[in-house]
Design brief:
Helix content: 40-55%
CATH topology: GMP Synthetase, Chain A, domain 3
Structural class: mainly alpha
Number of domains: 1
Radius of gyration: 15 Å
CATH class: Alpha Beta
Shape: globular
Number of strands: 0
């Protein structure tokens, strides 16, 4: 899969910028192919016992790469 067919954003009425712009920023700043997602989130590491024990979301530490907010500042700047 070269690129996803679509990126859908629904802010449930809370957006302060247009949802199509948010979708554009997602496409520009995140790898969305299966290979890109696996590499970006480092999913080939043997960490899944930890996620099975305590859940996948709301975790801290570098092990849970999908919880990273390292792109937040750049996304906020680009959204203005």
């Amino acid at each position: 899969v070269a690129d996803p067919v679509s990126v859908r954003v629904d802010t449930f009425g809370t957006a302060t910028i247009d949802e199509s712009r948010i979708a554009e920023l997602v496409r520009e700043n995140f790898p969305l192919t299966p290979k890109g997602i696996i590499e970006h989130l480092k999913l080939r590491r043997p960490i899944f016992l930890k996620t099975a024990e305590g859940g996948h979301f709301g975790r801290t530490g570098p092990t849970f790469s999908w919880e990273a907010t390292d792109k937040a500042k750049a996304l906020k700047k680009a959204a203005k």
